[in-house]
Amino acid sequence: MAASAGCGAPAGGAEVTDAGSQAIVQGKVTREGAPVSGYARLLNSGGDFVAEVPLGADGGFRFFAAPGDWTLRVLAPGGIKADRQVSASTGEIAELDVAV
């Protein structure tokens, strides 16, 4: 089991290999090819905070989301902040890699 950070979520999000009946948003955050530490947040279409996970040792994150459009927000040391748009669909894994 992955270590957890202050928010209680497993770093990088819970491990999954098949979306099944879920809508999953996952990926990695890197800077110049190296993993980034920090947090990934999921914001709904209105910009409201929904969930947060600490980035894994590999810069990875994973969210089980409702189907629809989302904003992934990366917050990392050094004032790094990046927003990316992503759509989640039931039974699919939306891959989103973020270079900051």
Considering the chains and any ligands shown, give keywords for the structure:
disordered N terminus; 9 strands; mainly beta; four-stranded antiparallel β-sheet; five-stranded mixed β-sheet; 100 residues; Immunoglobulin-like; 0% helix
Count of all domains = 1
Radius of gyration (Å) = 12 Å
Average pLDDT over all residues: 87
Encode the helix/strand succession as letters: EEEEEEEEE
Q: Please tell me what the overall shape is.
A: globular
Number of strands: 9
Which class do the helix and strand fractions yield? mainly beta
Q: Largest sheet at a glance?
A: 5 strands, mixed
CATH class (first level) name: Mainly Beta
Helix content: under 10%
Uncertain residue segments: 1-7
In the CATH classification, which architecture applies? Sandwich
Q: How many DSSP helices?
A: 0
CATH level-four homologous superfamily name: Immunoglobulins
- The fraction of residues in strands falls at over 45%
Overview of the structural elements:
- With 100 residues, the protein is mainly β.
- It has one domain: Immunoglobulins (Immunoglobulin-like, Sandwich).
- The protein contains no helices and nine strands.
- The chain has strands spanning 23-31, 34-35, 39-43, 49-54, 60-65, 68-76, 80-88, 92-95, 98-99.
- A hairpin with a 5-residue loop joins strand 3 and strand 4.
- The chain is globular.
- The model is unreliable at 1-7 (pLDDT under 50).
What's the helix and strand layout?
Elements: E1 23-31, E2 34-35, E3 39-43, E4 49-54, E5 60-65, E6 68-76, E7 80-88, E8 92-95, E9 98-99
Parallel strand pairs: 1-8, 1-9
Antiparallel strand pairs: 1-2, 1-5, 3-4, 3-6, 6-7
